[in-house]
Amino acid sequence: MLTLHVAENSPETAVLIDGSTVVAVGPYENLTAAAPQARVRRWPGILTPGLLNPYAPELLEATYHPDPREADALGTEPITGERAAEIFRKNPAALGASARRGVQRMLAHGTVAVAGELRSRAAADVVRRAGLAVGQRPSRLPGPPSLSPRPLILLPPLTQQGPARFAVFDVASREELVKRGAGTCVATVMAGRLVYRSR
């Protein structure tokens, strides 16, 4: 089924997808004329190729993402350092569940690719099952590990017949995205499926 994604502040980069593949990228008017039968998804902000987060090991293997049921005891924010290491020492099986929650947080920040060597099979399997692309880790990392690293690393433009993997941010421009960060994500699409939607 053809789906046409368009964001109000970047109508010139609308994306027509068929399943998990990009059929075309271009102005909304051109794509809707070429495929009038396509289902249209309209988004606020801008549509981008999505982000690369270079901190996969730090965020998925060295950080504990609490289960919502643990909020009373552990809070809701990611836990790092010796406290996270202690959680994993006491319960090695917690790594896989934490990595799944970590990937969900990444998707909620427009991440569609990660980098960094994952040493645990549990975290690597979570990344593979989520469909996240695995990219090259930059030689110089941007600041401390974060779900919204500074500066943001945007992936290359979407291409025809490429994977339908992208993110939408509720900002007026790329400059505003850089300024406000990845917390402005409103939608993330992986393999043509909407895997995160803020509203």
Give structural attributes.
single chain, 29% helix, alpha/beta, Urease, subunit C, domain 1, 7 helices, elongated, 4-stranded mixed β-sheet, 199 residues, 2 domains, 11 strands
Describe the structure.
The protein folds into 2 domains: 90 residues, Urease, subunit C, domain 1; 83 residues, no CATH class. Helix content is 29%, strand content 25%. The protein has 7 helices and 11 strands. Helix 5 packs parallel to helix 6. The model has no long low-confidence stretch (mean pLDDT 95).
Task: Give the helix level as a range of percent.
Answer: 25-40%
CATH class of the largest domain: Mainly Beta
Q: Name the CATH superfamily classification of the largest domain.
A: Urease, subunit C, domain 1
Form type: elongated
Estimate nothing, just give the exact number of structural domains.
2
β-sheet strand percentage:
15-25%
Please state the structural category.
alpha/beta
How many separate helices? 7
Residue windows where pLDDT falls under 50 for at least 5 positions: none
- Quick check: average pLDDT? 95
Terminal residue distance: 23 Å
Query: In CATH terms, what is the fold-level topology of the largest domain?
Result: Urease, subunit C, domain 1
Q: Could you provide a short overview of the structure?
A:
The protein has 199 residues and is an alpha/beta fold.
How is the topology of this model organized?
Layout: E1 2-7, E2 14-18, E3 21-26, H1 28-34, E4 39-43, E5 46-48, E6 51-53, H2 56-60, H3 71-74, H4 81-90, H5 94-107, E7 111-114, H6 121-130, E8 133-134, E9 166-169, H7 174-180, E10 185-190, E11 193-197
Parallel strand pairs: 1-4, 6-7, 7-8
Antiparallel strand pairs: 1-2, 2-3, 5-9, 9-10, 10-11
Helix pairs in contact: 5-6
